[in-house]
Amino acid sequence: xxxxxxxxxxxxxxxxxVLPLRHDAITPVFKAFTFLGFTEFFFAALPLLYWCWxxxxxxxxxxxxxxxxxxxxxxxDLFQDSRPPIELAVSNxxxxxxxxxxxxxxxxIVFWGSLAVETRNRWILVIAAIMIPGITLSRxxxxxxxxxxxxxxxxxxxxxxxAFLLWKRCRLNCCSETTLWVxxxxxPVILIFVWPHGEVTGKMLLVSGFYLAWMIGQRIxxxxxxxxxxxxxxKLAVALLGMLILMLLAYIFRSLIFKVGVPRSFAPALGGTxxxxxxxxxxxxxxFKLKLLQRSKS
Length: 298
Prior knowledge:
Layout: H1 5-13, H2 27-35, H3 39-53, H4 55-79, H5 103-119, H6 122-141, H7 147-170, H8 177-193, H9 202-224, E1 227-228, H10 233-260, H11 267-289, E2 294-295
Antiparallel strand pairs: 1-2
Helix pairs in contact: 2-6, 3-4, 3-10, 3-11, 4-5, 4-9, 5-6, 5-7, 8-9, 9-11, 10-11
């Protein structure tokens, strides 16, 4: 006997089963997992990978992760699916955005999955195997997503990661590098023009600004500095000082944007653009001048 529509809807949307699973001892654990899926985490993690680990691999992980974020925001506004009732959320953590797909789930699959693919490291694979289900389950446990949202994130994230794996394996020469770069650059611009149901969200402008500035800045950095990944103790120095400089620049940019009175509709895009350029150009230039980063020999 096939399940009825009401039964399917109940499975996908009913969150009452979560309540008995909650315990004060494990709630902080799931809060920690869910923190690792917020935009702020990726805005910090992606530059660190780019500066300290491997510039080329870090750039690929960053591009794929930012594309995942852009698609998440687009599909959320396309489906306009409500989240579970706010009464079910732990500590009123329920965001104001729509639910489907779960951005935390989608981003966790893409970020940790692509990182495991790029590193080919057993320990990174183990970490990814912990982080992906941990972040995913945290959204259910905290009551901010239902099962339908999670499944949507799993499907879209899985398709993106699969496409990345196929590209890594095949490296099809169907178009030039420049054509590919232009296509990826225009992708969020096109989405903004075909945005469903009215105005583009501020978060979409923020992420798109970061993404586009990252793409341009990565090319500027290659011409201006072309640094190579640091070795040994320099990695830690680059990570700590680079993040300190990035946070300082973010604070200065934010203060200036508010002080100058940039229109609210434009402020997120400007903020994301400045942070994107800071991540790929300004901070590497500072670190290069401090002799913590060196030019590539090639």
